[in-house]
Amino acid sequence: MTTVTSTHVSALTRLGHALSEGVRTRILLSLREAPARPSDLADALGVSKQVVSNQLACLRGCGLVASAREGRSTWYRLADPRLGGALGDLLGLVVAVDPDCCSPEGCTCA
Question: What are the residue boundaries of the HTH arsR-type domain, all occurrences included (predicted)?
């Protein structure tokens, strides 16, 4: 059995904080598909560029996303590709625990 350290707890707490806000969660789920620019994320999520910028700053602070400049654009990606798989596993677990949670009628998780 793995010994749980304060580093483990801190890492999971950061992930929990990131997932506790809907726009941040949607950004992370979007970045599973491919890197994106803030303006692309804002358009895809239907929120302002300022909201996306603020949430990306939080996700960077949590160590979950990384950025790279390309010309005049900044591209964001998941900091570790395993995060995409982990998010997919968490989503699958939510559906397994509460199959009605993600029904067409809307989320019953709240």
Answer: 4-98
